[in-house]
Amino acid sequence: MPTDYEKLMDVVREVGRFRAIGELLDWDQETQMPPKGVTARADQSALIAGLAHQRLVSDETRALLERASADDGDFAAATNIRETRRAFDRAVNVPTNLVRTIAKTSILAKDAWAKARDSSAFAEFAPSLGQLIALKKQVADHIGFKTEPYDALMDEYEPGAQAAEIATLFDDLQAQTVALLGRIQNATHRPDASILARDFPVGRQETLSRRMAEAMGFDFDAGRADVSTHPFCTTIGGSGDVRITTRYDEHFLSSGLFGTMHETGHALYEQGLPAEHAFTPMGDAVSLGFHESQSRLWENLVGRGRAFWSHHWQGLRELFPEALSDVSPDDFYRAINTVGPSLVRVEADELTYNLHIILRFEMERAMFDGSLCVADIPEAWNDRMEALLGIRPPNDREGCLQDIHWSLGAFGYFATYALGNLFAAQLFTQAEKDLPDLDNQIAAGHNAELLSWLRRKIHCHGQRFSANDLIERVTGEPPSMKPFMVNLTAKYTDVYQLAPTP
Amino acid sequence: MPTDYEKLMDVVREVGRFRAIGELLDWDQETQMPPKGVTARADQSALIAGLAHQRLVSDETRALLERASADDGDFAAATNIRETRRAFDRAVNVPTNLVRTIAKTSILAKDAWAKARDSSAFAEFAPSLGQLIALKKQVADHIGFKTEPYDALMDEYEPGAQAAEIATLFDDLQAQTVALLGRIQNATHRPDASILARDFPVGRQETLSRRMAEAMGFDFDAGRADVSTHPFCTTIGGSGDVRITTRYDEHFLSSGLFGTMHETGHALYEQGLPAEHAFTPMGDAVSLGFHESQSRLWENLVGRGRAFWSHHWQGLRELFPEALSDVSPDDFYRAINTVGPSLVRVEADELTYNLHIILRFEMERAMFDGSLCVADIPEAWNDRMEALLGIRPPNDREGCLQDIHWSLGAFGYFATYALGNLFAAQLFTQAEKDLPDLDNQIAAGHNAELLSWLRRKIHCHGQRFSANDLIERVTGEPPSMKPFMVNLTAKYTDVYQLAPTP
């Protein structure tokens, strides 16, 4: 006879199965589906989202949650029960019809967004965006919140996150970012980033991407890589089927290269989650902030480091001899670490990136406290961009239409990107302590020990610990922006030959 | 207030939605999924297949079927009620658990089959095959049958088909085929088919495939084309998302070329079904035999005809100048119409193709009446191949492991391929009567009028008429093998310069 816990896990795995099917429907829409498939896809996604929700909030789940218990010391069961209860409590007051409506609306909104973005016409996307904000307000009301509706939405991606706390953190982050940016902008030494804008044929970029993903440890028997408008990583079949996407720009090497390293970082987390716990919380990532720590660690701490390129430089130059024959490894290192205000978040440098996040966080918070209406979004975006970064988007395509997230109804998501940057620096600093030979290993092309450290310290735990607890457990320190600022200050002091601060 | 009929259609559309999601899971497995994704995929497919079945056989469906009625003259409603009742009656006695088990087993069996085929080791596939036969026997018993279990399985693909009747038809077909084959084998004139085995680079074959599909009228905004081990056509999102696959052989042009025309023929039917009836019987194909009539009509009656190549020959030669510079259009026409015993069904010529079908039909019938056990399949296959075609497969890869169907549990399917050949000839003969200018149009590269005729005569009707009724309605004759034999006799008399029969 199965125990109540085992029965509960059967339900949870079925919910996970529905979610994975939903991921496949989304992945297919982004990478494969022909344009005229969108209407049927919207109905299919709504059907699956509704079933996942219905199964999670069923009376059966409620009864099993009341009865299920973990044996003493069985931390896996305790984790699974605790996190299932959390998910149940979040979902139970949300009507399934609302879940279905949001799924359907967002499939159509994604389509409308892509078209609006192509023609840089915010007005074409505005009705869908308005609908999604209204629907997500209802969700927040059903879930409930202490301080503001936006908290209820953030909690989906970063459990326990509170907008007011994040805002305080971001104030500090903004101040320190702007101070360092000021020093960089005043530097007389300027690296030449234009070498990254030379001719990089897409076919050879694809070869490079594959090589980078393999060098990092991505298992192509348990995943694949494709091209999409907006790069992402998704899990279709537990750790056995994890898919990344990239986009290539023939005249901007970083887009495909670092985009791939970023998504591969996410994928390594997914491929490293314990397979025996697939589709249960113990087989799931801690939070999106933690997920982002994995992608940013590989993209920035490894991929924008000197050690990594001391191994991969030769191969890179052989792949693009026309573009890179007159470039030294040092030139390249400086080029991939230039800093400056830019319009597009996913192509921003490590330092200004967080300002893009702060802008989105502030705007979303305003949408949900009612102080920003949809029609005013483009101008508010542009004004805020100018205030934060000193540049104004010439059009909505490079402004408020650049991200896919709002078309997915994924409000409350962006802050996790900045948290991920901070976590990544904390983790990498600790990895350097735990693995004294790390730099030499990366320089020798061996990334396996770093990956193994991540698997041991983070991936294997699934959702056993909260994000804050896990950071503290691994690094001995609570969440902190200090390692992030220390790392970047050191890097840019080198790259820009900054004068020491008094 | 929606009527009972409208409520019934909501259920039917939801069942259709589940089926379409199941199709996506399958398509993805065949074309995209990494190897380690198979375990999770098996569970996902089982989940969706179970839900589709559960919804179809629910008490709600039963009650709605009892109450729903069509207004006088509303043939769409009458068709939908009739065919939903048929589907309900077939499904209602089959336990949902059995449906789930078959779905899961077949996903794993497909994987086992692909591996066994690669290493030409039937023993590796035998356990899965044994399981599937046993499971499908249970299905046949639950559905019920008058004469033999195999009838219950055939009925899924060709409503009303009876093995005994098909066997009689096939006896006649075999006799006439063997007679014509004998005359061809005795002919002194032999066309040179080796030109099709020259160097045809795959990249340019892909260009050709795309061109052929477009020439036939395939809408790439409502579909896509990919590569898979076993070519197929599947419908993911009604007429708005129809996908075909092809496989290419650098040293056999026909495989990719006629494979694409074949699957495009299927796809044109799916893209031509009435969109307003999507996911209901009125928006579905009549039968698999009828489906195959569409693919074979385009592949053989159009694609292996002189008219078609009088338009496309120039482009073909420009695409493959090295391979075809010394070939005349007439040489090419004869090459693509050579006849001879061969091992692989999908690459067989028009005449011997049906013998491959007869072999499979006889073997499956024997599996289900208990006279053929799994272990004996390879030898039985090889013996029968030798008796029918005079050649013996050197290995199982080219013998009993060549087809994907058994790994899908699709027993009872093969006969529809031969029926499709016969229907195709009847339909094309009628099209030539209805469209006196047809040959000239095809020769001028205009296939739109033929497609429009098919849409008007067949596609727009969905399942309004049974296969036999529709053939009679369109051609004025009941199903018959006469046009098929007449066409082929005329063609081969020309190609092989056969002496007239006394």
Write a short abstract of this structure:
2 copies of one chain form a homodimer. Chain A is mainly α and 502 residues long. Chain A contains 21 helices and 3 strands.
Summarize the structure in words.
The structure is a homodimer of 502-residue chains. Chain A is mainly alpha-helical and 502 residues long. Chain A folds into two domains: 4-144, no CATH class; 163-495, Neurolysin, domain 3, CATH 1.10.1370.30. Helices cover 62% and strands 3% of the residues of chain A. Chain A has 21 helices and three strands. A three-stranded mixed beta sheet of chain A has the order 1-3-2, with helices on both faces. In chain A, strand 2 and strand 3 form a beta hairpin. The radius of gyration of chain A is 22 Å and the shape is globular. The relative contact order of chain A is 0.12. The mean pLDDT of chain A is 96. The A-B interface holds A 14, 17-18, 20-21, 24-25, 28, 32-41, 43-44, 47-48, 51, 219-224, 236-241, 278 and B 14, 17-18, 20-21, 24-25, 28, 32-41, 43-44, 47-48, 51, 219-224, 236-241, 278.
Topology:
Two copies of one chain form a homodimer.
Chain A: H1 4-31, H2 38-56, H3 59-67, H4 75-91, H5 96-118, H6 122-143, H7 149-157, H8 163-185, H9 202-216, E1 223-227, E2 233-235, E3 242-246, H10 253-272, H11 288-302, H12 306-319, H13 321-324, H14 329-335, H15 353-368, H16 377-389, H17 415-434, H18 438-443, H19 448-457, H20 467-475, H21 482-495
Parallel strand pairs in A: 1-3
Antiparallel strand pairs in A: 2-3
